[in-house]
């Protein structure tokens, strides 16, 4: 156990800061650091270190950190990499609490740099000194006016304090996101660039922000988690604390590119696992960093959505902007609200019946869009049981600023989010200024407002999940039979499934044609023959599967036609039929734990990639929610007069599989049930093929 | 034939403009119109009309249009609707060439307004006077400094002349788009708000812009086409003139909402028809108006993509911004380029081998991102055979403006589009200013740059199509047999398909069980029975289809089990098998002509909505391109070791169906071949079900 000299809150809010390599020249890193500290009003002790100057920016300069006559909470180092180790050693010797190392070309630049980084960490660890970075851009602490950074975003006149706490593995991206936030009038508590995370890492600061009274919303830019197992528990703790967490995770596109042996490994890769863990723990995963910061601002400064799944109202004075906004909703997974009669009645007071619909064009108001009418319509929207939020895509119009200024109070009264979009550019600046003055967020692009709403929707769904009881084991689910390590045969994989109550096709392993015919007669025709070999993963690709054999002669003919490869036997199975094919899968993701997957099965499985992944074990409601998110869902629910399928049976099979994953834990490399045939309501489901791989050791 | 007093170029570029209701008060519409004309330097004769003032803005005012002693090319009317007719009558009497009517509450506000609009049009027509509007925002003619509008976007200091011509059915949206364009440094030729299109309509101005030397790119906001038949020929004329056309079409989301009788009508609705016509004619359809204007600017001021289907380079100094940009590509249908060895060799000169990959982080440069290195990498990208364009998502970094200023010349030299994104907000303004000064476009959001690239990709694909020869009729395609009006029976629909060489299942219509058994024996078991009735569209929903009947007994049993409803007979058919199910469809869209559709067939057809629509007739290459755009394509091409399917047979069937659509023209209400079973290569395709509806008359 390392005894640290300083706690995280002192790293973020130091009473004293030494700037190694301080300079009067703002063209230099050390010059910018001290400039920004002064410019943004750092209230603590500021200690420039420079062996060649007596004063810097009017402050007494010290020749080295060892000569500073007072305690130093934080030293900021933006020194050439060749000098870094010596400087860190000096800081350690001088009793510095923590070093923020802006210097790069350490572990980010190959093996030599990594070795140096290790050495730096060793020195710090030995002394109980904390490190932020290296290769980071430092810390912006807006709450306490401590800008411990050389980032050019600090050229901004003022960095507004507020509720958004950010941790980022990219310093430049963090600077950009703060700049975008400031444009929109967003306020930040602390923004921490963690760089190479030699010592302090993203999860440490996430942990800190959860308890930080100044932070109301947390935004994370993640490239890779140092210790994935810390992440989900922290997300759950943040949710319990009422603090939404948003994140962008780099590497989404690479995830799909890896060739993978099983469907489940390819479809539930590490990005899918990350996504599943975020959903389960109530965190909001965004694609676009710029959307993340705007969504964080909306969560900080606007009311939250009452609950997930509600519709939207779209209202503006331009028919063109309302219609094109409405057209963009489906691509964002959003919909217009179904207005209640009371809402319609209110709208009728202001406009002809023919215009009483969403999206609402206020240009149709009988009185020419009076403030009274606009306010009355907004109020009725925000009392409507199916309208969760209002989007206002304002185009150029008279009195934009005055009109915009109505919305903060309407939003406050209504208690639902109002996404105000100033779609014009500079000509809309007066409206933007009015909203900044009212401390009310605005967006510049309709597409952003919809992406933000999607994030709010995810936050809301995550909140709804927090109240659920823990999953319960269904009767007869387990225990697992004894299993060999390595790839299981189909029969072994099916017996594992059966031990948890997942229905599988009846089958008998036969070693010759006579035994196969006897087995077929016992099972009942038609049957399927499957050549079984531990060496073969995709049987049908090798001609090892013979379907729909109607009589003994057909069984004999099929047996004879099996390809001449070494087989462990021939499985004779009932020929099951169903109305739809699902794939169910399970695997263990290191750091994230057991996962289950469900998707459209059969030949389309890797084409459509219509899958949902979730951490195991599942509640029945979780399993049903996964099925409902599939593109295939309408088929399960009974599309176009076709029978509704036995969703309850699919839910049950998925829940039971999730307990296999939960019980086997890291022993389960992966398991596929593909396809599972689903029949009409009451007809149940049955897995017709199964495969699984088990870790050889019992670890 | 109406004799017009004035040609369109005079409406857009009038020598003299009368402002009805002119005022010194810029709070009034008429005050703003004259203010903006003066402010933006209108060089022609400016004639204020106001009975109560001797001068306005220092110009002599006239009490009425009839008292103006000189010819008036254009009068602008922003008068109360109650006075409109009288003012238009006065203009007609005074010999005015055209009226731009800003006044609203005409056809946009119900039947009474529509009647007044008709009366206004009648007056204008009788006099040969043209109308723009009513309910429009007028015309911005940047090329000739004639701002004939009251739009508040004209508050901008300067409206930059340039190559973008715009026509919009929403005035407010047009103002907003001009504002967005000006922010990005885009220049416009003419922007025309057409309002209710009483007389002059969108296609008139599209026609004008195609011949307009000042216009290089055309952007359209369309709510509904007055005469759809004009549209596609104009798009083709624009392409021939080398002028890309971009459009946003309102009503996309509503299109899918209409309940429809056949799959084809529901899947190939009017929005899909519009989309198909745009693709065929090389126009670019955008979802987001703000993306449209930025894409238009890119087409105006950047080199075009060399050809469709190339990859991208992403390069910036922040690993975070390059990685998140790369992650966003797949969702936009884009991909990174595969760098050629020559490109890799150039990159190796500047950075360690481990960093030689796309996206490229210039933070990894050995020399700290020198301008030389950046320029060399950019040049090698733009010479790479697989890199069509470069995206530069700049975050906060030192010397942003100087760095940004490198790109215009690099882009000019390289001859490929460079999408420069300034991802920071105000702190990036110096970089924006540098690019405006260099007349080079920039974007503010990575998501915008990718949406713009998608539009550039569509423009490029449209250009590639222009060189194709006209479709040729395949041998044996037609003529059509005599057809009754109304819904055809399956047998009639199949004989129509067969007359064009589309393979259909063999079948015999039987009236009793004995005849069915005899037919089955002639066809060969197993067979299918289908109860046939002109009154039934979806046979399987009523239990009228009995599959896989293996012998005579099964045929008799199935015949007896048919539901007791009046039937035209029972079709006995071969039981066809295939590896995949397609739907093929055809219909006639008024104004757009014959269309064909292909998609994933069977039970998933309306769930997945995996369909492609195109105008008929098709070339084989068109048909194959449609198949390649399906989500199902990997199944057709042979996914995961499964056999490649007979794509040539699917192409042939689709081409032949397209000639049915082309030959029947408006007589064909709709035709579905669903499913068509596709077998492995060489196995062909066969339509197992068919339905069609024919217009009763021969019109």
TrEMBL record, chains A, B:
What PROSITE patterns does the entry give?
ATP_GRASP
Cited InterPro entries: ATP-grasp (IPR011761), ATP_grasp_subdomain_1 (IPR013815), CoA-bd (IPR003781), NAD(P)-bd_dom_sf (IPR036291), Succ_CoA_lig_flav_dom (IPR032875), Succinyl-CoA_synth-like (IPR016102)
- Record-annotated ATP-grasp domain positions: 494-530
A Pfam family for this UniProt protein? Answer: Succ_CoA_lig
GO MF annotation, one: ATP binding
Coiled-coil parts of chain: none
Q: Does the keyword Ribonucleoprotein apply?
A: no
Q: What domain of life does the native source organism fall in?
A: Bacteria
- Asked if the keyword ATP-binding belongs to this entry, the reply reads yes
Q: Which Gene3D superfamilies match?
A: ATP-grasp fold, A domain, ATP-grasp fold, B domain, NAD(P)-binding Rossmann-like Domain, Succinyl-CoA synthetase domains
Can you say what this protein is called? Acetate--CoA ligase family protein
